[in-house]
Description:
four-stranded antiparallel sheet; five-stranded antiparallel sheet; 884 residues; alpha+beta
Amino acid sequence: MEKYTQFVLKRPKITLLAIVIITIIFSFGLPNLEFDYSIESMMPKRDAEYRFYKKTQETFGNVSKFIIMDIFGPNLWSDKGFKDIDNLITDIEEFRDFNKEIEDTRLEKFDLISSKGRVEYDELLDEFNDDATFQRLLKRKKSKLLGEVEALDDTALIKLRAGLLRTYNIKKNERIERISSIFTSGDVNATEDTLEYFDIIKKDEYGNRILPKTEEEYDRIKKILLKTPAYEQAFYAKDAKTGEITDLSILLILDTSDNHHPIAEEMWDIENSYKNVEILSQGVPTVNMLINGYMESDLKIYIPSMLIIMLMVFFFNFRSARGIALPLFTLILSDVWLLGFMGLFNFKITVLGVGLPGLMMAIGSSYSIHIMNQYYIDFDLISEKGRYEGLRLAMSHISITVLLAGITTAIGFLTITANQITAIREWAFLAGLGAVFCVIVPASIIPAFSVMLPHKMPRIMLTKDRVVKTTLVDRIIALMTAISLRHHKSTLVIVIVIIAVSVVGVFKMDVEMTPFGFFKEDNYIRVTDKIFGKKFGGSFSVNILIDSGEMDGIKRPEFLKRVDELSKWLLSDENIDLNLGRATSFHEIVKKLHMAMNNDDISYYKIPNSYTDILDYFELLTGEDSDSDGRIDDMELFIDPEFRRIHMLAMMYSKEKDLITSTEIEQILNKINRQLDKMFPNYSTRITGDCPIFIRLSKYVVQGQVLSLLLCLFIVGIIIIMLFKNLLIGLIALIPMSCAVILNFGIMGLLGINLDMATAIIASITIGIGVDDTIHFFNTFRHYKAQGCDTDQAITKTLAIAGKAIIFTSLALIFGFSVFVLSEFKPNMYFGILVAITMTATTIGALVVLPSTIKATGIDVEESDSKSIIWKYLYIGKLFRVES
């Protein structure tokens, strides 16, 4: 590191040019950044549950990734309402059935108009009078991208075209597989022993829907819906008192790809563009899309807020333009490097990744403050020795400390890769890489500029006699010194009591991985989950698979009757604790066919006793089979091509409580599994989908937390031992960090804060960052011991020199992470609060608990004089010229 520092001081311009070039290269990755909150970003791809879930999708389609829309309002059963719904579905159908010729013609026409330059918005719309669907798309894109402007210049047209092209590419992917609503679905009639589908909303010879105009036509549709019990909650919701249909639904079954954010965003824009009816939407893709939006908003808040906080910390520390500008510049560059790297190598910003820029600022500020602080501490030395030689002497000592701190922080983060959750492992790698960037950037920029800029002390830091002023931080350090030297035993007793209380809280912690628990009660996601639960049975699925064991086995009456009994059991009042609002499958189709073949007599809405009758129904049944796999499209979600396995879709929502936790979901699944074993003793059954995966994620969080925490403590302890060639230093160094971790978990348990994706990494962050202060303290402490100071003198001088930098870096960390409380996302909010608390704890640990422990134990900090061959190879302190 010393050689690198000398290179920077001798060739500052070359160093800065290299930094600029690297920054430009990384900046090309910034436009490629994407947000991703999905199961696929979390689950390890080799997990057996996840692999079965993906295998199930190959047969039944996307069993859990669907978007459901609720349409209601006073204009629902009117010309205006039905016209809006028809247009809404027409807009959506273009994402299911991509027509390249039409889409290319639209873009070509748009380009021709744009080529003439500035154009009025109304004139642009008039050019597409014969294409109402594209007109609506133009209106949506213009409103979203350009706002209220009426005249479109070249820049606006380019931006508008980019939006149109993005939609074009989303349509091309055909992410929507099926659209289920009364506008796209049919009912079944029995005529002369023939079963035929007919459209609920009639179509003309060109396939255009014929919308009802009269009360009689609306009544016809209502009668079709009301006569079949299975249509309630599937196609409509009604008023419990009047029995009137108040809501209609649209269900979008998506394909089995991993990324549904773009299509969910398009659907969101479409549904919000209609005003004659009220439209709400729910479903995992919608929830993930909204979470992505929250993450993007959080990121826009975090970065400027943290920069302002860091600016204030730098000002109060250094009181100079140089002391503010140089550290602030290093923070910005470190973030650009990391985010650019993520964009270049296709790392997406997950719920954890949102905090990475802030984390890098916090870490980078620590290293920048240490380096900048050393410059002012050795100001007189630099004046005496000359700029180059003085800076070389000043920077050599601190650069070693910063390098060691950066290495141990990076290693601390990398230990989290032991976690099985993909998003956490990626975060660990990126955080470790970011820690390296946070060392390189300030260790290059601050010395390079320092050797080039005039050498002067800010006037505001000097008294009239040109003596450096005593500040509030100096008084705080003096107080900490007094506590450490005079009240060290009392300090350790207080720490033991706090730890004992915290341990009680540790055993009260719960794990939570369901997305609904991540938001405040008045959040759209939580509110609409309740609405969809009451109206349509829920928006969150439990997917039950039952294998009959033979081809056409699911057509057997005895099998279907058990499935029907299961459906009733799941929804019964005695099982309200299951929180299921709807359960539908192939058996509902059979019941519907049986009723149709018996003049729509509701008493025949049941499973027929005759196996022959069921076979006959399907021989007579007609319907579209677009993929020619032997299954009518409307049945593909529920049966396999061999009619051997059946899929039951059960919808979940919180019935009695405000929220269903991961623990409760596990209890629900266990109860359903017990009932499956009881009702289907000779059949193979299994529950799949998001619910079992959330349970698996919860277990991975706990297992990964324990493993990464122990691994982090072990490796950091070993590194410190190897650096200082002293076993006791390694053990004592872990005391303040371990106490901070226990305190963190204790607070979580006592305050009811769940262990989740975000809070699971706090312990390792605490160790990874807290070790910086420990190394800085010990390296400085041994420096003064080597100069002949006794323990009290060494502690006093160490706190006076290293303590100031530690306090300011901790302030940067504490206030920096506090901006996370502005998040709509509860894990991020709690993450910010808890990290701020643990950073406070590690600071007190480094400046009070650590010196108190040294004072109380009388530990010998000198390196071991052992000549063992082990130390010959494991003592790495000599490589970094650690003080001895």
